[in-house]
Input
Amino acid sequence: MSSMTDHPPRESFRISQLIYDTRYRSLTIQVVTLILVCLGIYWLIDNLLANLTQLGLKPNFGFLEARSGYDIGTALIPYTSASTHLQAAYVGILNTLLVAALGVILATIIGVLAGVARLSKNWIVSRLMAVYVEGFRNVPLLLWILLIYAVFTEGTPQPSAFRPVEGGTPAASMIWNSFAITNRGFYMPGPVWGPGSMVLVAIFIASIVGAFVYRSYAKKVLFDTGRLLPMVWPMFVIALVPVVITYFVMGRPVSLDYPALAGFNFRGGIQISNPLMALWLALSLYTGAFITEIVRAGILSVSKGQSEAAAALGVRPNRAMSLVILPQAMRVIIPPLTSQYLNLTKNSSLAIAVGYPDVRATLGGITLNQTGRALECMLLLGLFYLALSLIISFVMNIINNSMKLQER
Output
């Protein structure tokens, strides 16, 4: 009689098992596929380098230090035609980041508001939102960019229309004597930073942080005790009152520079060019239409009993939406929202259609044409968009993890 602790002898491994044993065969196929793919990539790169060497185009990034020789209309950092191609690339990168950041902010606002309005019981409001969503989702983004750009350039007056006319009124007038919309761009007052202005900026940032700290405290009190603290007006008071008091106590360290017509164009203030405005609005409205549906689906994913329970407890609909429905819907909304942010960032490369100098137009356009370094420029462009996408995904994953329900 054999003992219960006896084990059958272990079967020794044989090479034939890599093919005939289903436990190892899938692993064998994956390893062989990986080796073939690596060999294929190696062959392509080796062939590419050999051909480039024959043409005298050995990969080299030294062209980035050469003089660019071209001007860029919109630059957030000092730049002239005497600057290098590397500085031109920096200008393009900053312009891309600017339009992507502005687009993400505005698209989120549009998407959230339109998504909530899409579920409105008001027939007109819900149908208008449906028209907006279907209209923007089913028309190519490039057409919207060109259409909005045409509206800005063809439907707005020239700067000369704002010139005073003796014995009459000019053809166009500024809004509140501060804002001017022309076919060359949008002009508005710009800040002039005087002595002590950085202190004011620091207090402004601290006030904003304090407002959000109060919001977190009010939510904690609500969840712990059920006591509802006022949230909106205290946040405004915390965010604005210290800044206003400091502003006057320090003798108004920040003033405004108003745009004024001088010669053939406006001078002073801040100018937002029409290509930037058209690209920004088109990206925001187009991506906002997709975010609208994501928000609507997220809200509908929350059980109806949640809103009914909030109503039974006497919670007003707007508070039920912000405190009960949206926090639960965010778990569904954030993952697809990340994809839309990535799409918006990559779609910003369509800026070349309206002449906005993003990184595609500088590094991947003029620099590439002048130097003939297509491989290097495309490689740098790919690395930039890859790094930017990974950063956006990383930040959104952090936000997604913070939105998870905490079990108690």
User: Anything to note?
Assistant: Residues 175 and 181 are 9 Å apart (CA to CA).
